Amino acid sequence: MGRMADVKTNGHVVWDLTSPNSNDERNDYFALGDSLPPFSLLTSDEDRERKAEAFSPGTYHVVMTPDSFSSLPEYADDAVEKSRSKSASECRSSAANSPTSAVRSECSVRGEDPNVVILKTFEDVTRRSPSNGKLSKFSPTSEISDPFCNLSLSPIFTSLPSPDVKAEEISFLDPRLDQQAQDSTLFSHFRHVVWRQLFPHDHRLADSSGSDSHFMTLSVDFLEQEAIHFPPLSHAMMAVSALSLSHSGTGHNVDALQYYQQAFPSLQVSLRNNDDLVSDGLFLTHFLLLIYEIAAAEPHGSNLWSHHISRLLHIAFLRREKYGQEPHPFILWWVSHIDLYALFSGAGTGEFVRAVIDHQMLPGSESLLYPNAPEGYSVIYSDEHESLPIIMRLYHDTFRLAAQLGFLASQLRHDKQNLPFAEFNERSQEISDLRLAFSRLWESPDVAFLHQHQDSLPRRSREIMQQSATLYHACQLFSYSSMWPRQRVDGEYSSDGEIDHHATEILRLAERTTHTRRADRHFLVFPLFLAGATASASGLKMMAMELMTSMEDEEDGMGRNAATTRAILQVVYERQLERLMRVGHTFDVDWSDLMAQEGLQMVNFGF
Prior knowledge:
Elements: H1 24-31, H2 45-53, E1 61-64, H3 78-94, H4 99-106, E2 107-109, E3 116-119, H5 179-198, H6 220-229, H7 231-246, H8 256-270, H9 274-277, H10 280-295, H11 305-323, H12 329-345, H13 351-358, H14 388-418, H15 421-428, H16 430-442, H17 445-452, H18 459-481, H19 487-490, H20 496-512, H21 525-534, H22 538-554, H23 561-583, H24 591-598
Parallel strand pairs: 1-3
Antiparallel strand pairs: 2-3
């Protein structure tokens, strides 16, 4: 303000202390981040950021001194570095069971002010930066030799440049380029590559410049216009674009994390009134930040995906109250899919899916596919009228049953530990009712006819039918194998035949898409994992691993979820082989419990 006469703070929700900045909705939005322990007890930079987000700037302070950086390779020779790394490792190990002692080992509190911490060791925050090709805790030479597979445990990233991008469209990034040139390159990459990865491109909607048609309610042009008026959306777009560009196989190494981190303080100062809380800009910002978190996820890394899911749910409720219905229902579908697969994997509780279903906010089948017209309905072409609406309803109904199955599994896992056997056994009978509901849905005459003649269907009808069938078989497979620990041991009859049948169908569907380079093959990642983890036949296990590897080799998306998921599947195979050699079967190896024991998480949707 001293340098620039035009800067004003009047009415600003952060910098004008006289402003009525305590309106209930804004406080409610930020209060979601204020459920953490006191600032001095937090042990990671991510948690400190979440805590600080709920308060005005300047409330909390993290101080670093030269000693904080002394252990970095730039400032220490190899001998000193090894000594300090060993000491730090021992310190962390001894403090692992006590959050308070852990934070004391890494930082100190200044005086008696619990809102100021002095870091003794600089925290390396590259966990969400572009991968260097290796996943933590997995050695590149680690292999297992077993009946299931014989593949390297650590994925090797050999991705190809996206076929949608011409070399002249994307400028090569160079450290000497100024920030404006780099931002311009990232926006170009978002428009020509990222957008088509998120929303599969259809040639019938493209003009010569590659942008979407003017009649669509959600397009890349629309996002760019929103980003002009809402800066956090611009940071989110560049973060996702930088992550994608770093994985594009073109040799770029862009620090995506810097753009991601810029979005949070930008959100603090951009939410000025109630209209901002229901704006498309805020809704799409958290959607893209969620995409970033999932695309950058690693098996042993911390992740803020649930933070953005909660934000999106809160914003969705506010938007329905204002607009009556969500103007961009396709985004609700996207987030619901992510939350459903997180529920299946055990990484999430299904908070978002449960809320949108319970409050009648799950969009109808008519809004399932992109692109959407201004009314929110999916665009259906003349050759699709006889098939696509029926198949979209089929997928919608299958999705709702899948959510019920996921919620039941979550409940049964809890009940298995807390209810007497007879009571638990009665509750588990609900699985049969859901299987019957799935069968009635898929054996109806219309569905049976389309399923039998899917090879002659229009392209989009055929693809959504494949996606529907994959979800159906994944649900059936899940119901026979993964509803609670030791389900296959407790069962009254052997379910191997049903399990291998549904695993075979998932593998067959995945194989059919191997050479099509569908932009939306992300729906196959978790079903392939489940097929490999539960199949009893070693040949099926090998095929699941091979198909996942082929997807990994073909990946040109924003992240490396197929590689991450394959690495987790190999850990499951190792444990199953161990049990096979010891007791002669693998039925008591529960992949969900194993992931919890190993500190693994599978929050992905195939990016």
